[in-house]
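Thread: NQM complex, take 2
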Amino acid sequence: MTARHSQLRIQGMLMRGGSSRGPFFRAEDLPSDPAERNRVLINVLGSPHPLQVDGIGGGHPLTSKAGIVSVSDEEGIDLDFIFAQMTPDSDSVQTTANCGNMLAAVVPFAIESGLLTANDDWTTAVVKSLNTGLISRITVRTPEASPGGERYVAYAGDVRIAGVPGTGSGIEIRFVDTAGSVADSMMPSGNLIDEITLDSGQVVETTLIDNGQPLVLIRATDLGRTGYEAVADLSADEELKNQLEDIRLKAGRLMGLGDVTGRSYPKMTLVAAPAGGGTICTRSFIPHRVHESIGVLAALTVATAARLTGTVAATVSPADGADATAVDDGGTQILTIEHPSGGFDVALECDSAGQTTGAGITRTARLLMSGEFHLHSQTDL
Ligand code: NQM
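Output below.
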């Protein structure tokens, strides 16, 4: 970091990763002390302020994120990634849970910033998300600018993802060992269904599951909703949001996550029968704002639950009890998770017993700006 006039400046890039957006930094350009690093991040984002007007955040959790990338010194891992979740209305910086959307921008950023060399028409890197230890194999298109010339990250392409206008070049992400990211295991309570009693006395069936993202799944109809509501209607539904927070705080303890009052997890997901030919319909709360679509690892976790007989998701999904006979020759089954702005395809890899062993998803990403972020002069760094 260097000082310029009264402001400090720091190298970085603004990237869209999937349906999220935020600044990316090389770890070496940020303070190594986590508390100082966090002060830099909230300063760059402009939190806390509902519009983040004094920073580059977008006034929403999906645009209040940051990525920190470094070359890994671990055998078999190319890049280490730290995902930071901020919020517009507080100065919290959380690095506990994963984000599969910001993950999509890691390899493009690493190439753009010189941490990784593109070596072929497609460049693959193994990325470890230090938040939870999640390992992913990420492949990005990197053609030559001219025959024999320098390779560059191709952002243009024909892949369309929900929640993002236009199309882009597909980024393939393959996950293994996703069970239990923040929670200790995939089914941290040990049950397929847990009954949770609300403060009102109502009892609601939930599935508490973490296959990359800790989620609480609830049938929308059990809370008197359809599960097909528009984002704006759910956002205005204070009664529902209060019920969900009541359930979330109790579910957090059942999942072994302790007091999750100020935490960004577990996320809440209303499920309903598919309405558009997919596997299951969802409405996600992350955890207090309604998601315009659905998170990557959230979609993977919902897909896993939909196949698992006995979960609340399976009770509303035709994927219930999907077994080895339902997968293709490669042991892969595509499950489409419906959400407010479309469908999210998750390719679940299953073994001969039908157990989920891995998953693949496609995202796009884009470099939006590169240069220096200028930090507010009053930051005490
Ligand atoms: O679940 C939103 C997002 C996410 C996280 C959130 C994500 C994931 O859509 O992997 O991508 O759940 O806060 O970016």
